[in-house]
Amino acid sequence: MNKVLIIDDEINLRGLLARIIQLEGYSVAQADNGKNALKLLEHEVFQVVITDVKLPDINGVDLTAKIKSSYPNTEIIVLTAYGTIQDGVKAIKNGAFNYLTKGDHQGKIIPLVSQATEKALLQQKVSDLEKRLTRKFGFDQISGSSRAIVNAIELARKVAATDTTVLILGETGVGKEVFAEAIHYESPRKTKPLVALNCSAFAKELLESELFGHAEGAFTGATKAKKGLLEEAHEGTLFLDEIGEMNIDLQAKILRVLETSEFYRVGESKSRKVNIRLIAATNRDLEKEIKNGKFREDLFYRLSVFTIHIPSLRERSEDIETLAHYFIQQFSAKTNKQVKLMDEDFLKALQLHPWKGNIRELKNVIERCVILVDGNKLGTALLPFDFNTSSNPNIFDLAVIEKNHIQKVLRHTHGNKTEAARLLNIGLTTLYRKIQDYEIN
Question: Residue 378's pLDDT is what?
């Protein structure tokens, strides 16, 4: 049932209004001053508040601003006395839905309450949708508690609230697009479009048309004008994945967009304005690409205003168990199975695997295992053959144990061999020899 709160120190008027509104099927609460009204609002959700301008402890116009600040989805109707219409106008500036003059309100109050309720419910639906989108695409969807991933999330959270261009770096499969989505859906642009484009998926001419659009007759097959993704992303976010694959001529045009917010459709001579936030990502070393003449240095500096490095799965091996459980739960629900566990050897095999495909590879492996399993526990027999032979060797072999331990320490030190030798309590020369003997990459 929709709820209305009436605030007025005149008990007779308050009671009359309450009876009229209750007869229309609303639940009505009453307060005789602003303080008591705010207490009620703390504990209950009201779609509509009706308040007098003159209250014992606060002006209704000021109360309107307070309520809208704390409860933006609640609509407020202000009651004014004759000769104080300016109060109603000021209340609307403070966020009130509308105002009525006392003595002329009884025939108008119900239609106004109905309109205000409709607006409040619509706003609540929009708010709920935004929250669901944030939960689905925001930072809460990123699993892991390792220092490397936590640092990346902290950086992304800070930049999300701004309009700054972001460059996301990381290997294939680490979740660069997931981070781009989270930044967008926790930004002021979250209600506007997020448009994503993989620059490696198109030839130069097609990529230019996809990005900037084209005029009718711009090239063979262009039978009508077409909007590009830049225009589709207007007031929202454009995510350019694998920007390191973009042709250098197109890079100059993207640079112009960043510098002037202007672009040309293919085949047009008139420039167009666009308001976008750009997030770019790549698995390439762009500074190396600059030296090789394949990436513009000026564009690199415009993109790298704020850079986030997403760690590989090898750099956050302590998160493998958490991620595996997350994917098990996800694919169990998808396949209507009750898989909840993985045995110790299965987890050990996951932790020893090099994961060149990173999280995407782990996700695919878990999906395969969940599809194949008959019971509720995943075991090593479900893993791909090459996966087993490389990652789950004879655990009783002393050489294997030593090799695995050295690999674990090297992961812990992020490849720092001097620190690894110190932790292993062996000489650096000995460590290099063992790395060579065991063919540790």
Answer: 92
pTM of the model: 0.63
Q: Where residue 139 falls among pLDDT bands split at 50, 70, 90?
A: confident
For helices 11-22 and 109-137, what crossing angle results, to 10°? 70
Domain encompassing residue 114: 3-131
Q: Are 224 and 337 within one domain?
A: no
Sorting pLDDT into bands at 50, 70 and 90, what band is 232? very high
Query: What gap in Å lies between CA 407 and CA 111, rounded to an integer?
Result: 72
Look-up of token digits 């609230």: 161
Domains of the chain: total: 3
Structure tokens at 98: 């509308």
| Low-confidence winner among 369-373, 395-399, 407-411 (lowest mean pLDDT) | 395-399
